[in-house]
Amino acid sequence: MANTSDIRNGLCIRYNDDIYKIIEFLHVKPGKGPAFVRTKMKSVTTGKTIDNTFSAGHKIDDVRVETHKFQYLYNDGEFYHFMNEADYSQIRLLEAAIDRTDLLKEGEVVTILINTEDDMPLSVDMPATVVLEVTHTEPGVKGNTATNATKPATVETGAEVNVPLFINEGDKIRVETEKGTYKERIKE
Q1: DSSP secondary-structure letter at 101?
Q2: Which residues partner with 186 through β-bridges?
Q3: CA 175 to CA 154: how far, in whole Å?
Q4: Measured distance CA(1)–CA(11) in Å, rounded
Q5: What single-letter DSSP state applies at residue 138?
Q6: What are the φ/ψ torsions at residue 68 (nearest 5 degrees)?
Q7: Among 37, 164, 177, which residue's Cα sits nearest to residue 104?
Q8: CB-based contacts of 1: which residues, under 8 Å, 6+ apart?
Q9: pLDDT digits (tens, 9 = 90+) for 126-139
């Protein structure tokens, strides 16, 4: 058992007969009244996100988890298949357990949280950024670069990302996985 002072991003807790992962939290201590913790939690089974407020000192049932590095292999339409980098065992997960499937390319190494009680995978943590190749984008218009203008570009995984006008087809770009936004162009 833990309490609200132990809440942090990535913590898995048991709440309402389900396991939730803390996405965001904020400790609030108003001038009048008791302190509380405002949280945003994502269900690891359904993928549904909820907001909840815990009063300060409230007991929470945390779930012990281990993290393992897995390599993404392929998607067969229903399941996403991963291989453990340590012992080469394979697991398959539903799309709800993965945050950004549109940015996941074959061979990408991700971190998977596994419940130590029953060895069930809980969620997939993508790396902070991924490098993807632009497969389609319109050519930039010359002279239109005075402002921070962007254009849509389709990357190799099928995701659409807004990129600056100087990005062309075939360029490799770094994309932030949390927001799905362009970060920089990779020079080769």
Answers
A1: G
A2: 172
A3: 12
A4: 13
A5: P
A6: -135, 145
A7: 177
A8: 59, 60, 61, 62
A9: 888 889 899 988 88
Q: Cα(92)–Cα(90) distance, rounded to whole angstroms?
A: 7
What does the pLDDT look like over 91-104, one tens digit per residue? 988 877 777 788 88
47, amino acid identity = G
Which DSSP letter does residue 6 get?
G
Sheet-wide strand order for 90-94: 90-94, 79-84, 65-75, 109-115, 121-125
Which DSSP state fits 63?
-
CB-neighbour burial class of residue 131 (10 A; exposed 0-12, middle 13-18, buried 19+): middle
Alpha-carbon distance of 84 to 103, in angstroms, equals 20
* Alpha-helical segments (H) within the chain: none
Q: Which domains does the chain have, with CATH numbers?
A: 2-62 (2.30.30.30), 65-125 (2.40.50.140), 129-186 (2.40.50.140)
